[in-house]
Amino acid sequence: MVTNVPATHSQFHAVRFYQDRASLARLAAGFIGEGFIASMPAIVLATPAHADAILAELRSRTFDVERLLATGELIVLDADAMLLRLMVDGTPNSRLFQQVMIPVIEKACNGRRDRVVRLYGEMVDVLWKAGETVAATRLETLWNQLAQTHAFSLLCGYSMGNFYKDAAQEEIRMHHSHVLSDDGIATPFN
Questions:
Q1: Which has more pLDDT, 53 or 171?
Q2: Backbone φ and ψ of 16, nearest 5°
Q3: What is the rounded CA–CA span in Å between residue 129 and residue 152?
Q4: Average confidence (pLDDT) over 31-44
Q5: 13 and 177 in contact (C-beta within 8 Å)?
Q6: CA distance 164 to 13
Q7: Three-class DSSP category at 59
Q8: Which residues are CB-neighbours of 10 under 8 A, at least 6 positions away?
Q9: Average pLDDT of the residues in 23-37
Q10: Which of 66, 143, 160, 167 has the most crowded CB, counting CB atoms within 10 A?
Q11: What pLDDT, in 10s, does the model give residues 128-167?
């Protein structure tokens, strides 16, 4: 269960530093699943292995994943492929980011402006793993800017194995409103 996540749009941009694929799948599926229960659509921007694990976890929680995919209530996109569409000279481009992400969010909303989308993303983790820390933090900034005009609650996943210094975790935390604990509690950053 994921708790303390607003049902309405109020700048929820959380980070989860995960240890392994199973723990990540549980937390991401909990976050997304609670959104489904509240009639919120979801977008998963993950590596194929993580997306498969998240979908398997959703199925184990009795969500009809095939129906959700068919109706567009759930959109699953490959994080690496999406990054290729929005990068220019090794940096996320603001214009391309908007051209790529806004239609996906609008598709998930299905024409309803009052819908908040639950979004799990790990494009930032893909960049961080590649040593592109500046690009990763730039992408976090672009998400925060997009949240000014579009309603979504975003959970970012970062692999613990990618952080070798506490300063790196602090840099990532600066771009997030909350941190998600092992038991799914969203704690706001001060």
A1: 53
A2: -130, 120
A3: 25
A4: 94
A5: yes
A6: 23
A7: helix
A8: none
A9: 91
A10: 143
A11: 888 888 898 899 889 889 988 888 888 877 776 655 444 4
DSSP three-state, residue 3: strand
| pTM of full prediction above 0.85 | no
Evaluate whether 158 touches 124 at the Cβ level (below 8 Å): yes
Rounded-to-integer distance, Cα 29 and Cα 57, Å: 6
Task: Take residue 120 and report the two structure tokens written for it.
Answer: 């799990």
Could you tell me which of 120, 147, 116, 148 has the C-alpha nearest to residue 8?
A: 116
List, in order, residues 6 or more apart from 111 with CB less than 8 Å away.
none
Backbone angles phi, psi at 2, to 5 degrees: -110, 125
Handedness of CA 85, 125, 167, 15 (dihedral sign): positive
Domains of the chain: 13-188 (3.40.50.300)
Are 79 and 47 in contact, with CB atoms under 8 Å apart?
A: yes
Structure-token match 């309603």, residue found: 151
Range 92-119 burial, b when 16+ CB lie within 10 A, else e? bbeeebbebbeebbeebbeeeeebbbbb
Which tokens hold the place of 52?
A: 């498969």
Q: Residues 189, 180: contact at Cβ < 8 Å?
A: no
Residue entry with tokens 């391309």: 96
Q: What is the mean pLDDT of residues 84-104?
A: 96
Structure-token match 């806004």, residue found? 102
CA gap 40, 21 in Å, rounded:
24
Contact 187, 6 (CB under 8 A): no
